[in-house]
Amino acid sequence: MSLIEIPPDNKKTWLKELNNMLTYDTYHTSEYARISVEKSAQPLLLSYVEDNYKICFPIVVRNIENSSFYDITSVYGYSGLLFNDLNIPETVWSNFEKSLVKYCYQKNIISVFSRLHPLISLPFDVLESPEIIKNINKTVFIDLTSQEEQKQQSASLRRQIKKLKEIGVIVRLAEKNEYPIFASEYLKTMNRLNAEKEYLFSDDYFKNIVHASDFQSFILFAEFEGKIIGGGLFLCCNEFIQYHLGAVPGEYMHLSPLKIIIDSAREIGCRKGLKYLHLGGGYAGKDDNLFVFKSRFSKQRSIFRTWNRIINQPEYDKLVKERFGDQIPKSDYFPLYRL
Q: Which CATH superfamily is domain 145-274 in?
């Protein structure tokens, strides 16, 4: 039994390890990690093997400011643990955890946080622990294999999509060289919404996404009277489509073009023979207007969980104390010292 560290430039080995798992998504790939992670952080794939059981854990190692310590997080999106067998024995999982703790101590890593993939099955009978596995909220997905379930869109949504078509709104697949148009509109949308820095991506980010080879992507533009009134970026890998990012110019918000864009992505997924179009949840996992909007497309829900693990409790507590003094907030944010 061993825990192996695979860097993202070893793309061939990383992909080989993923192909040994039951399945994986865009957010697990080395190419997405290289594209999405800041230069100051280090993406890695940890691979554990014991007997015939294998566990893969894509991670991002970050330095903790003003300290000699590091922590582990996951890429933007839904990543998390992967297994080659859901009937993993408790002893194997226990040995993996011991190996992970040993690895973290060797690397001065004091905590582990990872967003788990809502549509990839995990052996929760072995993993489940209220202190470590946190149920955050639900996400929305469309079952592309069931025409019946796809017809469960809200009646008002169907009427609104029909209305958009009637007034002349069309949806088209963007060319790869049109990604700067989407990038520009996306940044304008985020700035209008006063989005946090983590949601502001560079032109290179979009360029690398559309030219990636580990996964596929496509951009859909909604057009009205010859003008682009909205766009959506979708990522495809194995049986999954992820609705990744959306953009709507302020003057066309009243038309709500993302409705017809997402519906067109659903049709594309069906034609491609994919299983799931994952729309995600609300902002920061909340039941907000974004979640309500997505909920109109499907009644299907998945549970969004995170894996939170404190490795070095004394140093973790020390960092929290340094950050907040005696006024430690009551918050579920993890790790707390980054709140």
A: Gcn5-related N-acetyltransferase (GNAT) (3.40.630.30)
